[in-house]
Amino acid sequence: MSVEEDKPVVKISVEDRPVQIVKIDDESETHNFILDEEALNEILGRDEIRDKPICIISVAGAFRKGKSFLLNFMLRYLENQGSDDWMGPDEGPLNGFTWRGGMERDTTGILMWSKIFLVKLPEGREVGVALVDTQGSFDASSTVRDCATIFALSLMTSSVLVYNIFNNIQEDDLQHLHFFTEYGRLALEDSGQAPFQKLQFLVRDWQYPYEEPYGAEGGDNVLQKQ
Questions:
Q1: Which residues lie closer than 8 Å to 196 by C-beta, 6 or more apart?
Q2: Can you tell me whether residue 61 is helix, strand or coil?
Q3: What are phi and psi of 128, to 5 degrees?
């Protein structure tokens, strides 16, 4: 992505918004999943992206761990095309996907940002980048099946899935990932496709920089020790 100097920070348009594309019917005993095809087609059927490859970036993980908050920084970056000052002023509001503090979940189902961002790859090809937010796992209202289905759907449909983890990579994080991945693998068993393309671990608020440094190299070292 090219970087332009002295470019003013672009604010998110009030017309752009998160759109729910997968809903969960909490009223039914089986918690059925409902795909809103009309909403999805409205986003992906626009003339400027209709013939472009789409790269879907999703963030998944436990509830109340800042997934929507993180996606809003991705939105800022894409809106400002990666310029040096893409983060904007410290006192500026963080708009985009809805987020709030507290114990109760905020995101339900799967949401896609209504704007697809056109990005030129190093080889010159242009692709559309879609940002997707997912319902957090293991909240009081969700069943294990709900959590597994949401995570598996994200794995199967994403070009890059960011696995959002807090403080450290624990054994149960890897066990949950294995379970969810198996769920996705079984769903694709007859298709011959891999359950996911690229999985990126993100450890938030890493507390041991004196053992392993921040960044990709430190993260790889932590994974090797698991």
A1: 155, 156, 158, 161, 181, 184
A2: strand
A3: -95, 135
Residues 6+ apart with CB under 8 A from 44: 50, 54, 116, 130
The span from the CA of 156 to the CA of 110, in Å, is 13
Does the pTM surpass 0.70? The reply is yes
| 96-142 pLDDT tens trace | 887 655 555 556 789 999 999 999 988 989 999 999 998 877 666 67
Q: Residue 134 pairs with which residues in a beta bridge?
A: 110
DSSP 1: -
pLDDT tens digits for range 191-214: 666 656 888 888 888 888 888 888
* HSE value, Cβ hemisphere, 13 Å, CA-based, for 187: 18
Helix, strand and coil percent figures for the chain, each rounded to 5: 25, 25, 50
HSE, side-chain direction, 13 A CA sphere, residue 154: 31
Least confidently predicted of 64-73, 153-162, 194-203: 194-203
| Phi, then psi, of 153 in degrees rounded to 5 | -60, -40
**Around Cβ 1, how many Cβ atoms within 10 Å?**
13
Question: What whole-number distance in Å separates Cα of residue 196 and Cα of residue 73?
Answer: 24
Task: State the Cα–Cα distance between residues 76 and 216, nearest whole angstrom.
Answer: 22
